[in-house]
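User: Fold this; tokens only.

Assistant: Input:
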Amino acid sequence: MVRPSLARSIANLAFARMSVPAVPAEPGWLREAVEQVDREFMLGPPLVLHLPVPALFSPVWAALRESVLAGPVDRVTREVIASTVSALNACPFCVDSHTAAASARSADGAAKAIRAGLIDIIDRDDLRAAAHWAWATRSPGDRFWRPRPSLVTMSHMRSGPRSHSTTSTAW
């Protein structure tokens, strides 16, 4: 679990470049959804950018929650995969947010290696395998690109296009 103070500091850095939209008073269910996001994930961009359109906020949160939180794979592995895909997509905001989340979950070495493009030096075998798998999505013939039931669930496959739809080159 991420310490709330660390999550807030990450969010504050992300928000330094943009204004935080206010939570609309209506519809009433939106405040509950925002509280769930804050409790289970981290209230920050790009998710809160959908607040002005409540009918969009809820499905975006549902899709993000499914790909990031649901399923048998732990959050650290998911963040390593997301960090690697973000690095492939050359999306600085996504690299910053996913590597910060990985670091906050005791995978700082993996986060630094991904930022440096040196996934071979990731010390944990499971995280190195996850990073190699994500990196290999760019090259379907790569020896690392194969089904890995113990590592990858369908939610990983769905999270790439959803989370990185505007900058995707790896998917």
